[in-house]
Amino acid sequence: MDRPVTPRIAIIGAGPSGLSQLRSFALKESAGEHIPEIVCFEKQSEWGGMWNYTWRTGLDEYGEPVHGSMYRHLWSNAPKECHEFADYSFDRHFSRPIPSFIPRETFREYILARAEQSNIRRYVQFNTVVSYVDFDSEKGSFSVQTRHLSTGKRCIEYFDYVIVAVGHFSMPNIPYISGIETFPGQVIHSHDFRDARQFVERDILIVGGSLSAEDIALQTFKFGAKSITISYRTKPMGFKWPSKIEEKPLLEKIEGRTAYFPDGSTRQFDSIILCTGYKHHFPFLADDLRLDTNNCLYPSQLYKGIFFQNQPRLIYLGMQNLFFSLSLFDCQAWYVRDVLLGRTLLPDTSKREEDMLAWKTREEQLEGKEESIDFQTSYLKDLAEATDYPLTNLSLDATAATFKIWVADKQSNIINYRDKPYTSSITGTKATICSTPWMETQNVSNAGSS
Questions:
Q1: Could you tell me which of 308, 330, 310, 309 has the C-alpha nearest to residue 318?
Q2: CB burial of residue 284 (10 Å; 0-12, 13-18, 19+)
Q3: Tens of pLDDT along 207-250?
Q4: Run of H or E residues at 307
Q5: Within a 10 A sphere around the Cβ of 180, how many other Cβ atoms?
Q6: In whole angstroms, how far apart are CA 280 and each of 140, 167, 196, 241?
Q7: Are 188 and 220 contacting, i.e. CB atoms less than 8 angstroms apart?
Q8: Which of 347, 285, 354, 280 is nearest to 318 (CA)?
Q9: In what order do the strands lie in the sheet with 141-148?
Q10: What is the pTM (predicted TM-score) of this model?
């Protein structure tokens, strides 16, 4: 891949992965190194991506699709020790130990504090939506069309690289259920779930069988739902649910308020929440630049899980199914930085294809969560070892072990797993135990208290 002498880089999105990319370059600049010209386009008025809570659903004030899926009382559903920056620990930010599970406000504060200290706001154009990206073969660069949401001003700029950092949790996957149009109650996707308190004393049907179904079931139970039925497609989560929560195979149809299940049973419901996942959705990209993938650990079109094989100047961050999150974004961002600075050279097309196939073949042989955790751990090692990102194999192995303990703790007691303390693989600090059990904590303002 030829590298321009003074490249221009467009980063689309100032959420966690985009901020990781900006920080990676800013650190080199602060060390006295010359870096490319960088412009980051963010359609929201503030950075933070998915961690920005809004009461809005559907469309925002500018008629743009609402990006975020954050709900009011969300807490982290994995230990914070599994989502710790290697170069900015929780100890460094909070100056004291805090519990392992923290509210959204506290987690967002941690992410944005590192961004503020990185002096990277100067790169970001807020309230600016990217409307179309294409590769101009004559110019040898990307044409990026943008629109400023508050002024309406449109602009076309040219860049040597485009980094897509918009995540893949904003376009709901909404399946059709026979008869759902006859249901007289509320039907929403988890993308539009904002507050569990609206489901007090309601009989709720949750369609889905993964993390969002698990967490929204617990949220609505916590805030007083009358009953929760989780209808899964492939297999039950199998937790030791309280009596108000049950799992049933995927419903066959709906007639009015009545849902019919494969075992011959029926239930009546007041509300339906579709926890059916998201689509990788990039309407702003030309057809030949769009990543086409399901939610997996290694998207087949991306070399190193990052570089678009057919046009490696197009870069995707964070497109994987995530166990690791912040550290994965950092490892990818540092690797991208070194490629764009010429420190790391990409191999030719055939060698990239060979490497991608090896990872994908390995992924297809995985069985169970523990093997998936080990796979993603190996992936991060592969990236981190090639850069100066301060994440060691020892720390990664320790974090993987924490993930596995967390998985076991949820199986042991899904109700109180958030009350357990874990140990940081970065600092060795053990978390405190929150004075109030999570199931009894309903006010997010006491975030991080011990």
A1: 330
A2: buried
A3: 999 999 999 999 999 999 999 999 999 999 999 999 999 999 99
A4: strand 307-308
A5: 17
A6: 27, 8, 27, 31
A7: no
A8: 280
A9: 128-136, 141-148, 154-159
A10: 0.95
